[in-house]
Amino acid sequence: MDLEKMLPLGSDKLILRKGIESYLLPGQHSPWLPCDFTSTLHLAAEQKKDFPICLDQEIFQIAKEQHMRAENHMIYNILSCAEIECSNTLEDEYDTSLPGQALIYCPARQHIYSILLESAKDARGAYPVVKEWFVYAGNSLQQPDLVQPKQLPDGTPNLRTLWLNRSAEAEKQRLWTFLACFQLQDAAEELQALEIPFFVICSLLLYLVLQVDSLSLEDLNAFMAQALCLQEKSASQLADLQLAQIDSRAVQLGSVFVRGLGVLVMANSACGFPFRMEDLMPWHIFDGKLFQEKYHQVHRGCPLYQLLEHNELRCTKFQNLMDLICKVSSANGRKIQSRPRPSSFVIGNPGRGRGSHRRLLNRNPSPCHQPQCRERQWRGPQQSGSFSEFQPSGSQYRPRHQSLRRQFQFVPRWPR
C-alpha cells in the first residue's frame, strides 16, 4: 500500500517523509519511504564519516545497540553528532521563582558531556561543544544553545574503563563518576549507606537544593514524605486518592523532579550503569497525586506523625534522611529556609467540554487538622547543622541561572 495515497489532498508529502525519517538511525531504512528517497539523515551521516565525534568504534557500536534496544538515554545522540533536544516541558509562566528545567539541569549535563566526549578533545584539550535544543522561557529555538562540556573534579575517567572494565575498582569509579556529575562525590559514603530508592531521591533533592535557591524546607519535606509513604501504597490506593485542589507550584515541582530522574538515567547510562535502569524509574519514588497531598499538608503545618500517616518507623527514617540532606547542603554553603506558602491552586470542572474552566487562586488555607493521638509538631534533631536549625529568613530568591543564557554562543540554524 502506498502510504502517500492515504494522505488528504493538498498534504505536503515531504513533511510525512521527514517525520518517518526522524525515527531512523544512520544505516536504517523504512519500507514506508520510496526507494529513490534520499535521506537527509543518511547524507549527514556520510558527511560526518571523516570527522566522527566518537573515535572509539567499539564504544560507539555499544551505544548504538543500546539505543536501538532503548537501554540508554540520549547517549547515542551525543556520541554520534553531539546534539540533543528536549522539545517539551511543564512550567508555570506566572511563577518566576523556579528556573526553567533545562537551565536547572544544565550543569549536570555539562559533566555528562565531558564523560562522553573525553576522547574527542582536540590537540589543545578542548571539548567539542554540544548543540542543545531545549525548551525554556525566552528560548525561541531558532538556533541551538552551544554548551561547553565541563570536566569532572579530579579528572574524567575513560569510557572504556566505565563501560567495559568489570573489576571492583571500576565499579567504585562508576559510582563516584555518577555522583560527580551532580557534584555530590564528597557525600558518597553517606549516600552509599542508603537503600537504592532513598539514594536516588536524596541525590536528586541535594542537587536541586544546591541549584535552586527558592526550594524551601517544606518543599523537601513533601518530596521525602511522599517517597516514604509511596513504598507501601498499592496501585489501587493511589488511583483512589482524591484531591480537593491542585496547586500549580506543586505541579511544576513534580515536573522538575521527574525531569531530574531523566537526567539521572542519562548519567547512569554514561557512567556504565552503576545502577540498574529499573532502580531509577519514577514509579519507585514519585507519585504526582501523593506529592500534591503531602505538599498541601506540609505547607499547612501538619505535624510529622500525621504527614507520615501515623507510622513511627517512617518518622525515624524521615528524620535521618532529612538530616543527611541538610548536613550535606550546609557543608556546601546552602542553608535551607522554611517558607510556608499559601496555595496557588487550580479549581474547576475536570471535564474538557463546554463550560469547563480553570482558575489560578491564592488562598490562605485553614490550619491542618491536628490528630488527637499526636499533638507535637516535629522540630527535628537538635545537633548543629541539622534539619531543625533552618528557620525562615525572609531572604529573596536569587536565581543561580540568571546569567546562564549569556554563557552560550549561537550559530545559524542548519537544515534539520
Automatic annotation (TrEMBL):
<dbReference type="GO" id="GO:0045444">
    <property type="term" value="P:fat cell differentiation"/>
</dbReference>
<dbReference type="GO" id="GO:0035357">
    <property type="term" value="P:peroxisome proliferator activated receptor signaling pathway"/>
</dbReference>
<dbReference type="GO" id="GO:0005634">
    <property type="term" value="C:nucleus"/>
</dbReference>
<dbReference type="InterPro" id="IPR026784">
    <property type="entry name" value="Coact_PPARg"/>
</dbReference>
<feature type="compositionally biased region" description="Polar residues">
    <location>
        <begin position="380"/>
        <end position="396"/>
    </location>
</feature>
<keyword id="KW-0675">Receptor</keyword>
<feature type="region of interest" description="Disordered">
    <location>
        <begin position="334"/>
        <end position="404"/>
    </location>
</feature>
<protein>
    <submittedName>
        <fullName>Constitutive coactivator of peroxisome proliferator-activated receptor gamma</fullName>
    </submittedName>
</protein>
